């Protein structure tokens, strides 16, 4: 199918290669979907939320209660990703994988809490292996629902105060990298706060980071929502759904998932390079060249949502442009 897509691009009314990466996106999506006319109009955005015990180490500028409050904000339609989902006409699904406090039933929110947040990774494993597998399965089920709904493009997002700490720890372990090179401000730490956060991550790595097995890394250093994201990406590959990867945290989940199943990489498109310093290293490990660089670091899948129209434009150009012959346009020199 990729060869057919390339052949079509070669006869459209434009100089060869003049649409740049949009041409390559269309060819890749055609091959992924096994369709002569790729279609990513049906978009589902799934936000996984969970709390982190490492917040006890004072590594965030925001209190832990914000995670549950933001889940309610998603349900009420007031978050950035809520606005972007409406703008795109995309489905928005929110999954509570483990906030500290249980919540009442909220519209559009699935309660799949594994526990009341993870343990403090500076002192103990984040979760048991059983809990890690349960988190992965939450994501796999989300991908299966997307497939059943006929979704053409999957966007994963996250919400969890403290999750840049866990994600940086996971990235440091998988990349065998000094956390000082990867640690950033998250929700807005001062330089002193970033130094403290780095030391907390270093303590966690000293405790848990010797075993590089991806499941061990996710269980000992990850988060319920991070691990669910990894499961969702694996599930999307299984169901042949292209994925638009958001920023740092989702990219870390993608890195872990690709270590578990390298073939997953063929299903991933990368939306943007975030303002988190560790993101470039993770993108490099995934051989990823993101579409945008807007200094975003909000999370929630927001950067990926911003990039969705680029993929849709690539498909429309591929599908709807005239050929030289059909338009009666000369193209031979």
Describe the structure.
Its EC number is 2.4.2.21. The structure is a single chain. The chain has helices at residues 2-11, 21-33, 65-76, 80-88, 129-148, 163-175, 191-208, 214-221, 224-238, 248-260, 279-285, 302-320, 324-327; strands spanning 43-50, 91-98, 109-111, 153-159, 243-245, 268-270. A 6-stranded parallel sheet has the order 3-2-1-4-5-6, sandwiched between helices. 48% of the residues lie in helices and 10% in strands. It has 2 domains: 2-37 and 319-327, no CATH class; 43-308, Rossmann fold (3-Layer(aba) Sandwich), CATH 3.40.50. The protein is built from 13 helices and 6 strands. α10 (248-260) links the parallel β5 and β6 (268-270). The chain is α/β, with parallel strands linked by helices and 333 residues long. The chain is globular, with a radius of gyration of 20 Å. α4 packs parallel to α12 and α5 crosses α9 (224-238).
- Biggest sheet, strands in spatial order? 3-2-1-4-5-6
Count the beta strands: 6
Strand content: 5-15%
Second rung of CATH, namely the architecture of the largest domain = 3-Layer(aba) Sandwich
Q: How do the SSEs run, as a string of H and E? A: HHEHHEEHEHHHHEHEHHH
Superfamily (CATH H level) name of the largest domain = Nicotinate-nucleotide-dimethylbenzimidazole phosphoribosyltransferase (CobT), large domain
Which of globular, elongated, flat, extended, rod-shaped describes the shape? globular
Keywords: Cobalamin biosynthesis, Glycosyltransferase, Transferase
GO biological process, one term: cobalamin biosynthetic process
Pathway: Nucleoside biosynthesis; alpha-ribazole biosynthesis; alpha-ribazole from 5,6-dimethylbenzimidazole: step 1/2
EC number: 2.4.2.21
